[in-house]
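Human:
Take a look at this sequence-structure pair and walk me through the tokens.
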Amino acid sequence: MPLLEPEPDALRPAVTTSPPGPAHDRVPDGRAWGTPEPLRADLIALLGAEKVLHKISDLVAYASDASPYRFVPQVVVLAEDVDDISAVFSYAHGKGRNVVFRAAGTSLNGQAQGEDILVDVRRHWAGIEVLDGGARARILPGTTVWRANTTLARHGRLLGPDPASALACTLGGVVANNASGMTAGTTRNSYRTLASLTLVLPSGTIVDTADPAADAELARAEPALCAGLLALKAEIEAEPELVARIRDKYRIKNTNGYRLDAFLDGATPAQILRGLIVGSQGTLGFIAETVFDTLPLERCTSTALLFFPTLREAAAAVPRFNEAGARAVELMDGNTLRASVSVPGVPADWAELPKETAALLVEFRAADESALRAYEQAAAEALEGRPLIAPVASVSNAFTREAAAISGYWKARKAFVTAVGGSRPPGTTLITEDFAVPPARLADACAALLELQALHGFDAAVAGHAAHGNLHFLLAFDAAEPADVARYAAFMEEFCRLTVERFDGSLKAEHATGRNIAPFLELEWGPRATELMWRIKALVDPHGILAPRVLLDRDPQAHLRGLKTIPEVEAVADPCIECGFCEPTCPSGDLTTTPRQRIVLRREMRRQPPGSPVERELLAAYGYDAVDTCAGDATCALACPVGIDTGALMKDLRSRRHSPREEWAAAQAARRFKAVERAARLAVAAADRIGDRLTASVTGAARRAVRPDLVPQWLPHLPGAAARTLPASHRTDAVAVYYPACVNRIFGEPDGYRGPSLPEAVVALSRRAGRPVWIPGDVTGTCCATIWHSKGYERGNVLMANRIVEAAWGWTAGGRLPLIVDASSCTLGIGHEVVPYLTADNRALHAELTVLDSVVWAARELLPHLRILRTVDSAVLHPTCSMRHLGDEDRLREVAEACAREVVVPDDAGCCAFAGDRGMLHRELTESATAREAAEVTSREFDAYLSANRMCEVGMDHATGGRGYRSVLLQLERATRPEAERG
């Protein structure tokens, strides 16, 4: 059966309730074949084919970011080093083309979008080097803030900027936009904490501002630029009123336009450039490397969520908390509080709060307990005489140091975007705006904004960083409807005038100018300062090759150009706000597509007329690029602010592709799984005898003859077959039922391992701890159903899901005993994922079951009763994505720390993408997903390589050249085995 024959109809978005998007918003059919010539051929000749993405599906995937704009590039370049950047700049000069940089694509105003050459500077630009014991850090621009802080935390340090998108946004973008966040304010942002940077100018000149010879070298290479920068500095300093205005503009948060204070703070051209580049949004050069001065990581935290009767009362308390030393003071108005109840974990009684209510989330951080107590005392004094209302009615019980409670408070604060973004009407575009006013004007600004939103028919709600007078609001409108666009345009005009003329505020506090505010730049800064900004652009980028119209634009209607429509697709994907938070967690992000791109491509299919050349090409590419190479691990849902599981959508699309015969065969395999299991074990045993090379040849031939997504490929380092029989156990004295997963009944332990099998180890450990377990005699032929669920085989999935629940009900005596499962993915499967596929009766049975992962069982029930007799010096852990969903990662570390003196979880640990057998169907997926983690692991030797899922261990073995990953329970069994039992 040919692989792609059934796919165009099967993968076409099934929504029929709305027509395709307007013609102006579609990729023209002339672009159906992607990058035009000679651009494609020129760049391939210049850079190499592997660095040039030119298919229409590639271009569409990069056309959208977190902003309300959409521009399809002509080509996408995967730059690997500064030589590639310089080559692209030179080409753009010679051909009169434009260049835009894109890293995480989390910018909210179209800064990462272009219509010509788009350069991806995320994929090959990640890395951090800790300097001076952590006091400084050298960081590549594609490194996420979260990843950098993970490394710095080991040294008791962190970065100053702390944007809410820290999990996804990269340092290059943070510097380019001067993004700040909840605690950075005006003193801890990039402008204040960036020690130096390495910059590639549009001319190709490379400047390292930390080099003592930087100015001398710059003067030789760019004399006109140096002279021009110094002339501008002299000109600005000669105007006292202008100097005063510039200083005044940066007393509050301001990222609108170029940092004119760079001319006041920098004495030399290199120093001026360092300041100018911060917040320049990719319009003046490429940030190839950053060096940050880091800050102390204050680990002692005390936090309160305080409710006030009115917005004005809340705002009046903000200065007092600032004076008390609060690190963060976050504001939520009553509309925000009530809307947030739609988010799981937010108290339902918030829905009953009066409209006038407002809340402040106040946090203090300190290096030690005594300093924290002093802060708490200062906070109590700051609140004396201030009215508080339920749910917190007194200061004495307001502040907490409990990590879970603090996490809950911040979840509630961040629920703003989740609630509004997830519940907006289908088909509407979401805009996230921010501005700043002097903190003393905070209450008036909030009231004025809420009134303006309501006047123009937008949901009125506001939240923000109250400590810094920085407010955020969301707008949802339908960009396909001219009347809605006109409503949005009218609002923006009035909002900008209100902010500038009434409050003398910043139109952009931390999200940078971007396409949405560029037409209003002169409104805020006035003609003189704006003229200086145009001159800066002409001086540094005289040919205008970098990011046109992103920061400077003379068109008063520019913010209405390129607004993206949001066609309805599958219901699970419709809430997507295209923020990109999912992308760092996605195993296929460096191979094919990310969750955001999968949805972006679905939406483009809906924009196209059925059967158009563009739609046909998108459908043809989607099967492999999106559906086949999705690991389905659902970690995207954990990162997504609106909870979208794109993996579930891809599984549904796999199901749509199945022919009736394939569905029948999968159901038959489920019905006869006992025989299938036996055959699989025999096949593994046979393969072990005939060797990897011949087995790989046989499976390769089968894949070519049948279908690559159905027939697994044999890989090196696959373990041999499991023992034919499971260890003996007894029901009479068992305190739990032990369910060995089918993968552990088929595959044995890694090559070179000498010791008991995993089932033998679990039985032995439980017996040693006085907590014996029983393995039912009829487990063979049962499964957690993940095999069918992950491939989208509906009938087989339903059959096996109900079979395992019925069996587990009987084994556990109606749920009286816990069911212990020895593979984390199977624990997740039986404990949670089977539920939607159960009959009503079996759903009731399932509700009575207690399903525990074997690692959790060991940590809770066995470790307290075991004696550790021997440990190894070091162990590296691979936490599985299933454990992330289950919240069991800490238990894995706990068991490992009982067995090893040093336990390391790689900073780049993530989903291995083996996903049952997907790593055997598409080995390139696992190789790509594990590349960074494997590089960390293989950079040194460990005594033990541990995880908690057999196929994940196989995947990591494959990635690390056969390091011998095995279950942490095997290591625990060895650590507690008495000498009398040692063979």
The chain has a mean pLDDT of 93. The CA atoms of residues 742 and 783 lie 6 Å apart. The first strand starts at residue 52 and ends at 53.
